[in-house]
Design a protein that fits this description.
Elements (H helix, E strand, L loop, with lengths): L3 H10 L18 H8 L5 H16 L7
């Protein structure tokens, strides 16, 4: 779920460098607007980029996408 309360809780126990965006597709199918609203809760474009793709790229050892 794209729940801001859960995101706030996650940020109290870890840093943005350890968060990865995902959905439970096909069971959860957020709209583009819902995803954009969710990412507004991150303070900077750098944080958004980390959660959208850079953290996963680091985890899997691949080159990150250019923001």
């Amino acid at each position: 779920m794209l729940n801001p309360a859960l995101l706030r809780h996650a940020r109290t126990v870890t840093t943005v460098d350890r968060l990865i965006f995902s959905t439970d597709y096909p069971f959860q199918q957020p709209t583009r607007a819902e995803i954009d609203t969710f990412f507004e809760h991150f303070a900077t474009d750098t944080d958004r980029h980390k959660v959208r793709s850079a953290n996963a790229a680091t985890l899997f050892g691949v080159d990150p996408l250019t923001p």
